[in-house]
Amino acid sequence: MAATADTHSETLLRAKTFYDAELRAKLEPKQNGKYIVIDGESLDYEVDENMMVASVHLEDRRPNGQTLVIRIGYETALRLPLMQPDSYRRAVAEQSVPLHKTEKTFLPLDNRSPASLRAEAFYDAELRAKLEPAHKGKYILIDPASRDYEVDSDPIAAAVHLRDRQPNGEWIIFRIGYDIHQCVFHGLRFHL
Amino acid sequence: MITGRVNERHEATIPVTLAAPVDRELHDFIAIIDTGLDYHLALPNTVATRLGYHPIPEPISMIMGNDRRHEFDRSFVAMLWDDQPMSVPALVSDSEEILVGNRLLAGCYLTAVMVPGGRVTISRLPTPEPQREEIS
Lengths: 192, 136
Known about the structure:
The complex is a heterodimer of chains A (192) and B (136).
Chain A: H1 5-27, E1 35-39, E2 45-48, H2 51-61, E3 67-71, H3 85-93, H4 114-131, E4 139-143, E5 148-152, H5 155-165, E6 172-175, E7 188-190
Antiparallel strand pairs in A: 1-2, 1-3, 4-5, 4-6, 6-7
Helix pairs in contact in A: 2-3
Chain B: E1 2-6, E2 12-19, E3 26-33, E4 41-44, H1 45-51, E5 56-63, E6 69-81, E7 84-93, E8 98-100, H2 102-105, E9 108-112, E10 119-124, H3 132-135
Parallel strand pairs in B: 3-8, 4-7
Antiparallel strand pairs in B: 1-2, 1-10, 2-3, 2-6, 4-8, 5-6, 6-7, 9-10
């Protein structure tokens, strides 16, 4: 019988309770930053620096498990398991991706394009005071060459409108009132 | 250049790297190239949710291969595409695979040796990509 949403939630809660009661003191702070994947039914678990690797290894033992991922030491980064293990396993078998990453990687903060930097300079000089705080949380797309821009809570709609006016532009996205450390999209080219 | 492999089901696959918005950590996935998808990316609901991407309010209506209209949730994701960080729209569906559609491939040169294990390559073309109206 397929699990209902309620039983799924209960199983995940059981995994979290197990982590808090039995594992937290053993793993923190020594293993902080690693990921633990817990099967809420069997309470079997796997720890690895790579969330995908932990998920795949646990699924090898518990193929029908209902698993919860916790980033050890990061209470707020509690997530459900990330990967599509079947796809990943096939990819590994076909040698198109390495199973183990040697280290975590992050979207770079310092690899900004000239267009991105120009758009941000334009925003800082001419738009920030005008748009914040009334539009905080909305997205702005800026074409730095024309200095045209569009504000919307839906960035795809903003991009469509800006493309209509600047079809050959390069559209750079920012979230109003947020900086590069707070918004993963800050200063990225929006591909439409 | 992006390189991938043709799998046992004769699907051209490539690695794609998506960033989790909570901490910018990059996660590698295998995606299938779907030239029948007139969008940028299609993400399984589970992957979008677990990465931390939430649907934007207005779903999009699309006509499927069976001529039936279907509504999809949409999101937009931060990713590396040919090592370049960018933000792209994505459909969120109940499929099991990540799909790379035509709009992400626009302006690229795609090759695939269509035997299991065959090489897949995607290179950016040096000329500006044509406008969408010119593609059809």
